[in-house]
Amino acid sequence: MKFPILATVLLFCLVLSYFIKKSNKESEHAMDEFWEREKKANFTRKKSIEHLDYISIPSSITDMTISSEEGKDALLSLQQLSTQKIVNFTGITNTDLKLTYGTANITLLSEFDANYTLLVRTLQKLAVELKKEERFQDMETVLLFAINCGSDIKKSYELLGDYYQEQNRDDEIAGLLSKAKEISGLSSGPIIRYLEGLLFQETT
To answer: Nearest 5°: phi and psi at 71?
Structure first.
């Protein structure tokens, strides 16, 4: 009985060793590719960024008024952001940005991306405050703008999806689902499942 057990253990060790070595080689290869692309990116010449997909915050949002201090802070932040350049680079690495637009632009591009992150987070905060004041149409305006800008904040989809469900607006929920499927990254899955759950509840 001892020999079969020993043979099984040895075989397991050999297989495990094989997969560890294979994984290490793949990791080394991926790392080598990364550094090669990074080296190339660092020598990419500056290119025009005039035709980027810049986001403009509409006056229908910046001109809103609200009672709560949290809402006022959010509006002030949006008003300040409206004078800045905002671009959604979600899912795009700094290496890719340098390869596309040149190393000299990376600081500016990072600022544009940081402005985008602040934008969608602030829109979510404002929407929550508008809901508290039962200003649902304004809340819808804010959330639709955020989602059309490519926001991947799950709470924004939940807030608007729940509102549409209460209004029996299944077509709008289906529209949100289509938008969620365009999101790149891990956040799309939970959003899609949530919206599909809302639609499923309506059909049962």
So the answer is: -65, -40
Q: Is 102 left (phi over 0), alpha (psi -120 to 50) or beta?
A: left
Among 49, 113, 50, smallest CA distance to 84 is for: 113
SS3 at position 67: coil
Q: Closest Cα partner for 181 from 149, 150, 136?
A: 150
Residue that the structure tokens 């025009």 belong to: 48
Q: Is 168 left (phi over 0), alpha (psi -120 to 50) or beta?
A: left
Distance CA 41, CA 33 (A): 12
- Which tokens hold the place of 23? 């994984």
**Angle at 77 (CA atoms; ends 74, 79), nearest 5 degrees:** 110
Amino acid at 97: L
Q: What is the pLDDT of residues 46-84, one digit of tens each?
A: 789 999 999 999 999 999 999 999 999 999 999 999 999
Contact 150, 117 (CB under 8 A): no
Cα–Cα distances in Å, from 18 out to 14, 117, 172?
6, 43, 52
> CA 36 → CA 23, 33, 45, 99, 103, distances in Å?
20, 5, 16, 12, 15
